[in-house]
Amino acid sequence: MFPLNFQFESSFSTQDEVEKYMFQTDFGAALYTFNQIQGRGQYGNQWLPKKDQNLAYSLMIKENLIPSPLLFINFHTALLVRDFVANLTQEDVLVKWPNDLIIHGKKVCGILIERRKFNNEYYLIIGIGINILQTEFGPLNKAGSLLSQTSKVFDLKSFTEDFHQFFTSGITKDDSTILERYNQHLFNRGKVALFQHHQERQNGIIKKVDDEGFLWVELEKDGLSKFFHKEIEMLY
């Protein structure tokens, strides 16, 4: 099992900090904080959790230690976090394409995966932010936490240690069912939802995510179409 190398009292971004410790083991490093000051989300979005209420976690791992195809690592990561949270809370946890976790309509987790090359080897930095105890989100009306969505209280340190063990064990195992399970837990699949595409809003129904990572949506005006990340937005 990967050791959980470092806990920081505060960190600007665990995604940046983890690089400093990557060579202390043969395979990478893992660190976390409950006070991330300047976190990064997908496509440059900011992730600013409140102090001592949420987890910011980053694992830096040699790419060749992960048997999943590179295209599916996003999906595999989301499923592992989903499985851990679902087992812990006994709630129906869904994955909003590509990799946000949703409980009762609110986002409780965001994931950012970056690929870096050092000394002619490729590494993946897998950053995971989980809202655990936070209950006030200001203008972020789509945000929630494990506490706000399940009424369950968790000890942050125990949660993190258990999550790290579960995640590092799972990410290094081959799983031929990733795409099937991803579609099984896909948020709003088969339901009418409002989408925005090219500045136009229209209703649509998510059909599936395919083996190239595209989201297929049956739109009321444009018919069945496929989209890559940021080409369409679900307004939920």
Task: Tell me the layout of helices and strands.
Elements: E1 6-8, H1 14-17, E2 28-33, E3 39-40, E4 46-47, E5 54-62, H2 73-89, E6 93-96, E7 100-103, E8 106-118, E9 121-131, H3 146-150, H4 156-171, H5 178-184, E10 192-197, E11 200-209, E12 215-219, E13 223-227, E14 233-235
Parallel strand pairs: 1-2
Antiparallel strand pairs: 2-5, 3-4, 5-9, 6-7, 7-8, 8-9, 10-11, 10-14, 11-12, 12-13
Helix pairs in contact: 2-4, 2-5
List keywords for this structure.
single chain, 236 residues, alpha+beta, 7-stranded mixed β-sheet, 5-stranded antiparallel β-sheet, 14 strands, 21% helix, globular
Task: Provide a compact summary of the structure.
With 236 residues, the protein is of the alpha+beta class.
Report what the structure shows.
There is one protein chain. With 236 residues, the chain is an alpha+beta fold. It has helices at residues 14-17, 73-89, 146-150, 156-171, 178-184; strands at residues 6-8, 28-33, 39-40, 46-47, 54-62, 93-96, 100-103, 106-118, 121-131, 192-197, 200-209, 215-219, 223-227, 233-235. Strands 1-2-5-9-8-7-6 form a 7-stranded mixed β-sheet. β6 and β7 (100-103) form a beta hairpin. 21% of the residues lie in helices and 35% in strands.
| Proportion of helical residues | 10-25%
- Termini separation comes to 38 Å
| String of helices and strands | EHEEEEHEEEEHHHEEEEE
Multimerization state? single chain
The biggest sheet amounts to:
7 strands, mixed
Shape category: globular
Low-pLDDT runs of 5+ residues are: 39-47
